[in-house]
Predict the 3D structure of the following.
Amino acid sequence: MGARAGGSRTGRQGTRRLPEEGEELALSAQLPAVSAVEARLAERGVTLPGVVPPLAAYVPAVISGNLVYTSGQLPLIDGKLPASGKVGAADGGVDAETATALAATCAVNALAAIKSQIGDLDRITRIVKVVGFVASDPSFTGQPGVVNGASELLGAVLGDAGVHARSAVGVAVLPLDSPVEVEVIAEFT
Amino acid sequence: MGARAGGSRTGRQGTRRLPEEGEELALSAQLPAVSAVEARLAERGVTLPGVVPPLAAYVPAVISGNLVYTSGQLPLIDGKLPASGKVGAADGGVDAETATALAATCAVNALAAIKSQIGDLDRITRIVKVVGFVASDPSFTGQPGVVNGASELLGAVLGDAGVHARSAVGVAVLPLDSPVEVEVIAEFT
Amino acid sequence: MGARAGGSRTGRQGTRRLPEEGEELALSAQLPAVSAVEARLAERGVTLPGVVPPLAAYVPAVISGNLVYTSGQLPLIDGKLPASGKVGAADGGVDAETATALAATCAVNALAAIKSQIGDLDRITRIVKVVGFVASDPSFTGQPGVVNGASELLGAVLGDAGVHARSAVGVAVLPLDSPVEVEVIAEFT
């Protein structure tokens, strides 16, 4: 956690629910609170990034009632796309395995966007819906496998609360020529 | 109803609302309860299928509050696509009429997904939103007509409750090279 | 306002909130009530059109709880598309600047659809989510700039309430060969 500990501290300890019996308690009470979700991300070597800044008159996520709607998340890492192009294209595209990893990065960025609104990812009670857009060569039909990168990350770090309804579609092209874009609706308490 | 009566029995009679005066009562009280929605499907020769099993860390539908969000539904029948390819493509594609019928099958599968969560389709108070993705040759612009296959089925079996907001878009390609994918948000009581 | 004053009258004065101190009051109390949102549209030279009639078994917008979900809106003006084709296509397409203006028209049509359900646009407390579909040549990656046309209009006429979560994707083709389609979820009180 050390390198970017500041980024993974929750700013809203007062709203954290108490761990229930048998629940993993990631850190001692004296340390800055880190959500169980972020602890599980850390076990996978992932530090939650800062939220991707808005590019225009929109924001990374909006709360309505007990739902958070994220903007479509690109797999940006430190503001850059690790790869670009269409999945399955004969020339210059990205392969399905690479795209699957990028979809997981989209999901991490979605969690960062959600955290920017609710403060503590342990407040998530359910990932309600995921839509995964895969920039696809018209011959590529493996969108479900690619979007599994996002679905499996959410399941791994959120447990039962991470199991969601989902659509996966193959689109012509995405912003910045990104291979993947993922949007999320999450319920929180 | 006979052939697959088990599949159309509701498992939650206790939660069924009572029929109101003048409302169609499909079966006598002694028989296993069948929802009015499923009775109307039966009139069209459609038996509600079992829910399409999840392919990964996602589920066919999720409840949040009084809404059910379905996953994107392909027009699978007994696990197989009746047709594949892009709509309007000169070679090897499917025509608009075929795609319209497939969109209706997507809607039936969405109803099965909703039933898997709420038990009885008569609990639906409104189809709130439908998004229809049509795998399209770039020259094909008749997506609204194709997605009407889903919209008209929902209107036919749900009446006023089936009239929804809708988006229809033409995408490059869909999972399994399906010509159509439909997702639904339904409100229930 | 004169030319289509009837179209911009609110039919639900009883539900209008009172203007707060310092808030712009567009018209004197004796005139038919015009929402502040429509007054700001008028400052931009935009008269809210009548709602685009449904093409099938769907409607322009549906209320569920305190949310309004719009159907995907095309940039129709008086029932016609001002331009058609894919954005960024070498032959016969539309340029990004034109598409951006069309996206703003989609947003205006979305406001008309919302008004058809809630009567008075000043009841909007938040634009929760915008999805912008841009019919794109596979080489065009500027979807965010195009969809900014919608985002900036919503921000301009709704202020803080207009700042939303958003997804922008590039699709193969849209209904009627429209360059843009925009759908909106709005929260209201």
